[in-house]
Write a structure and sequence with these properties.
This protein has two helices and no strands. The chain has 107 residues and is mainly alpha-helical. It has two domains: 51 residues, no CATH class; 48 residues, no CATH class. The chain binds zinc ion (ZN).
Length: 107
């Protein structure tokens, strides 16, 4: 048996220019607004096509340093000291909560 690649979900992908060129901010809201404008133009000007969809990829990043989020299921983040310290505080909070639950009603 050999691997076979089948093709499906054919579509046209439109890569927008930066929203800054259109007076919009270079952030998620700006990119979505620019993509919505392009989708509206496609609907208005091109006949006999399916619905244009606006989509984007996502990436998990550290809220402190912006590096890719790379933490194992049980390990803490390894990108920066701030993320590691927050992870430690969260672990301590979880342990206190578990202790409270386990000791509830034992007085
Ligand atoms: Zn970080």
């Amino acid at each position: 048996m050999a691997k076979v690649t089948r093709y499906r979900n054919y579509r046209v992908v439109v890569v927008p220019r930066t929203p800054v060129s259109y007076g919009l901010p270079d952030n998620h809201r700006g990119w979505i607004e620019r993509c919505d404008e392009i989708a509206a133009s496609i609907r208005r000007h091109i006949d006999n096509v399916g619905t244009p969809l606006v989509a984007c990829d996502t990436a998990d990043v550290c809220s402190f340093c912006g590096e890719p989020w790379d933490a194992g299921e049980y390990a803490g983040p390894v990108c920066c000291v701030a993320a590691d310290e927050e992870h430690e505080r969260e672990q301590a909070r979880c342990k206190r909560h578990i202790d409270e639950i386990e000791n509830h009603g034992k007085d």
